[in-house]
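Journal club prep, shared notes

We agreed each person brings one worked example of a sequence with its structure written out as tokens. Mine is Protein NDNF. I'm keeping it raw so we can talk through how to read the token line rather than staring at a rendered picture. Sequence first:
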Amino acid sequence: MKMSWLRFYLPLHVLMAACLCHSIKAPTTSSQQSFRTDLFNFYHSLILADGKETTVHLMKDIPKRYYFVLEESRVLSPFTITVTPCDVPIEWSILVHKASASSLGKETQGDHDTQEISQSQKAPSMVSTIFNYKGNSVETYMGMSSHSALYMLEFLSTERDTHITVYLTTDTTSGHLYPELPMDPRIDVIGVGHTTVTLTWKHSPSVLQHRESIQYCLLVNEKHNYKSLCAAETAIRSSGMKLPPTLALSLSPYLLEPQQVMILSNSELSIINKVSSGEVRQICMGTKNTYTVPNLSPSTQYYFDVFVVNLLTNASAAYTGTFARTLEEPEPKVTELKDGKVIQVVLDGKKQKSYSLQYQARHKKVQFSFQLCRGQVRVHITKNGKTVASENISGMRYFSLKGKLLDTYLVQLRSTEESNSSVKVQVSPHFHKPLFPLLPESLKIKSFSKLRTCNSVTIAWLGTQEESKYCVYKRRIEEDQVWKELQSSDRCSGPESRHKSEKVLCKYFYDLNLQRAVTAETIKGLDAGTLYLFDVYLFGPSGIPVRYHSKVVKTRKKC
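Then the structure, token by token:
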């Protein structure tokens, strides 16, 4: 069966004129009036291309029509129409006009044309709807025809503006635009872990026949399944994401946006889109039909869609989507806290796992002490399951809590940075014996530029009203080491981590008048034009040191 366009144009114009004139001269039956109205609609429709996927844009509540003509054939000839909604459900139908098609196939000349058309109008119009559908699934209509016929496709979106794709073919012997699905197109979940889900599906016949141009792509999200690849693309775009032309052909990083992350490993491509509703992952894995999805969140429901994609035509077919819920994360190991004992906890910033400490009170009053050593840490404390404190800590922090004997306290620590963090923790019932010494208003070290010489510098720092021990250390550093030293230093490390040669002096001092609780030292024996890193350690009654903020000072080059 062939489609004829050139023979159709002229008769349609003549037929339209005749229909309009006839409607003015004499009353007509309702069927004839409907026939002429439909022909008028055809005239203002678009021709649907044969053998090519057409994108159709629909405006809300405004129908759009396409048509095609099939010529008479001695045998039944097949044709197929596939419609793919890319967003909201739509309504679409196929109408056929068999009476009009016979007149369109005739050769006409001059006045004889009008006579033939007038005769054809007297015959009853055979207008019928042969198919209609409402929804957002991919639907294919397969028809057979041996008569000359004019077909009209009408599409309508009642929810909002949207777009669809339409594929018509009258040649069913030259292969398929869309990859074929297996008889059983379901996706099977064969394994579920805390952070992984393993899927398998039956091979597409297209993969077995055209392995080099067909591949599978998997879509993972936390919202719902998608019935087509263009529906998935539309959903991600509506979230504010710009995508490559298709998910399947996102194999080149040239169109990646800042919200996208591309990961290529073991010949598998993963693209992660950061959208408001969570991550949407696209994974193209070639022709493998079993895949383990990694790096999922525990106790989370995910939806999985597999598309078999023809890389040459960019057409795809969707397997029946599935979903699975990852297992709950196992309870973290809990470390028991003991009265007065100090422990240091290192937290993994990349995995974002919390560290748990448990303490059973032997007194009604308890005090938790925290010293941040590195990074940023969030502390969450519960008493018998109820939150009593929760905040990000910096420097040193005390939490004094009251309760009952045998109350159970749970301390959860988590790094708020991607890099590792560490913190020292102590719990004690003795409020009068704090873990850390009494601290001054500021832990900054000040240097005096006017007092610098080629071989000495003068530094000063604040003290307290409590007599305490202060030790000064120095170390020579290079220009390119300054930033690293200041950023990566462990604020909990004490003098025991320093070389003996770095020690300058130790001294005791205090002043009941805080305005005068300041001490200064001149460090001599330095090299000219050289950078030095100075540290001051404060020791309290518990013996645990607190380090002041490091200070970098450069001696004068010339004196």
